[in-house]
Design goal:
Blueprint: E1 30-31, H1 43-55, H2 66-86, E2 93-97, H3 100-111, E3 117-121, H4 126-139, E4 142-146, H5 156-162, E5 167-173, H6 185-195, E6 199-202, H7 214-217, E7 221-225, E8 237-241, H8 281-297, H9 299-318, E9 324-325, E10 337-340, H10 346-357, E11 359-360, E12 362-364, H11 369-376, E13 383-386, H12 394-410
Parallel strand pairs: 1-11, 3-4, 3-5, 5-6, 6-7
Antiparallel strand pairs: 2-8, 7-8, 9-10, 10-13, 12-13
Helix pairs in contact: 1-8, 2-8, 3-4, 5-6, 9-12, 10-12
Length: 411
């Protein structure tokens, strides 16, 4: 299934019951870099982190006393919420990590063996590409990258044609952090299942912003950052592993797990095999609160609001002479818009927007240089990226468009 189309483009704003922290220093600052990290965070996230360290502060799984058990119960509650928001089954494993990058490495390095073959796309983030290229350089793995069409879509049949008898893994982003375009995961998963090849999905940009059905679509592994669409704190991530697939994952980190301490090797059972060291229970408390906020608010509601802002921004920018806006206006996307102003350095534009207009956006290659080279134009180029979030307003994107118009007109 491709990213579901929003039922409407009405502008929906947060309910009054959800307070947020005040914008930093200058209250006029407008944050439009939610593809990098969501901000501000719901007050429930901040309260959960503070409450953990104030009232508990124990290491989960490292004590036979009640407060340690309470910390363990908090961790299990977070796993349950991850299953709920991903539509995973009760017997699918949820590994809690320190980032989406760590989760992707656990999957890629844990599955690939010397001489294996993997298929991915040129839209992937470096958190996918660099582990794949490391497997190529260190272990002789062959990596095939599928190119998208001009709209940024990957043809599932193009993925299928790259699969060989040696293919050990297919990796695909659910939504690009450069173009915003979503992919038809359900079709790709069906083809992978027919070929008996695991599908790893990078849902860092989509989870919490787009409805996702891990079990129903037939996904094998799903990795995501916790600090983006899930509203969790930085330093959180997750890996969902379909029951039966976990047996193929070799650990790449080793150490204490709080259980089976008498063994010389990592425990075989998931999630503990992939969770060495003390879990960051305070951040996990924040992640659980963030997921709870998304579930209470409604993924579709968040999606409609963010897409509405993105569509309004794109309509305003397309009318500006001298601005090149990339990607399709299709609703099968997330709220990410990349653009260039010919002859102007995106980094310079980002600094002007911040210093002169109080607007914070991202410039550069966005850790996905091949996406730019594949979709934007031959050779690719850095872009200026605008990504509104749940706490942004129509006025925010209007101010951003007017600021961009002022900069272009003054050039």
């Amino acid at each position: 299934m491709i990213l579901g189309q929003a039922s409407s483009l009405s502008f929906i704003f947060p309910p009054a019951s959800h307070t947020v922290i005040q914008r930093m220093a200058n209250p006029a600052k407008i944050f439009l870099d939610n593809a990098a990290t969501s901000w501000p965070k719901p007050s429930s996230v901040l309260d959960a982190i503070s409450s953990f360290y104030r009232d508990c502060g124990r290491s989960p799984g490292r004590g036979d006393y009640a407060s340690a058990a309470n910390a363990g119960a908090l961790v299990e509650r977070c796993r349950s919420l991850v299953r709920e928001i991903t539509s995973a089954r009760p017997d699918d494993a949820v590994v809690l990590t320190h980032s989406g990058t760590e989760a992707l490495n656990f999957a890629i390095q844990g599955l690939l063996r010397p001489g294996d073959h993997a298929v991915a796309s040129t839209l992937e983030h470096n958190s996918v590409l660099r582990p794949l290229f490391a497997a190529r350089d260190r272990h002789g793995c062959q990596i095939d990258l599928v190119e998208p069409d001009v709209a940024g879509r990957i043809d599932p049949i193009a993925v299928d044609t790259r699969i060989t008898a040696r293919t050990r893994l297919v990796c695909l982003t659910h939504a690009s952090n450069v173009t915003g375009m979503g992919q038809d995961l359900q079709a790709v998963a069906q083809l992978c299942r027919q070929r008996n090849v695991p599908l790893l999905v990078d849902a860092s940009q989509s989870l919490g912003r787009v409805p996702l059905d891990f079990a129903g679509w037939g996904i094998d592994l799903l990795a995501a950052a916790g600090h983006k669409g899930l509203f969790g704190p930085l330093g959180t991530g997750l890996l969902v592993v379909r029951a039966g697939v976990g047996d193929q994952l070799q650990p790449i980190l080793f150490g204490g797990t709080g259980r089976d301490s008498e063994l010389e090797h990592q425990p075989q059972a998931l999630p503990w095999r992939l969770e060495p060291g003390s879990l960051d229970a305070g951040n996990i408390a924040g992640l659980a609160a963030g997921i709870g906020f998304v579930l209470e608010t409604g993924v579709e509601r968040i999606r409609e609001h963010e897409l509405g802002l993105d569509q309004q921004f794109r309509a305003r920018v397309r009318a500006l002479p001298g601005v090149e806006l990339f990607g399709s206006d299709s609703l099968e996307r997330i709220a990410v818009s990349s653009l260039v102003v010919p002859g102007r350095d995106p980094a310079e534009l980002a600094m002007i927007l911040d210093a002169s207009f109080g607007i914070e956006v991202r410039s550069g290659w966005h850790c996905a240089p091949r996406a730019s080279r594949s979709v934007l134009k031959p050779g690719g180029q850095p872009t200026l990226r605008f990504s509104p979030g749940w706490y942004n307003t129509l006025d925010d994107v209007e101010r951003a468009a007017r600021a961009l118009q002022t900069i272009v007109s003054a050039h």
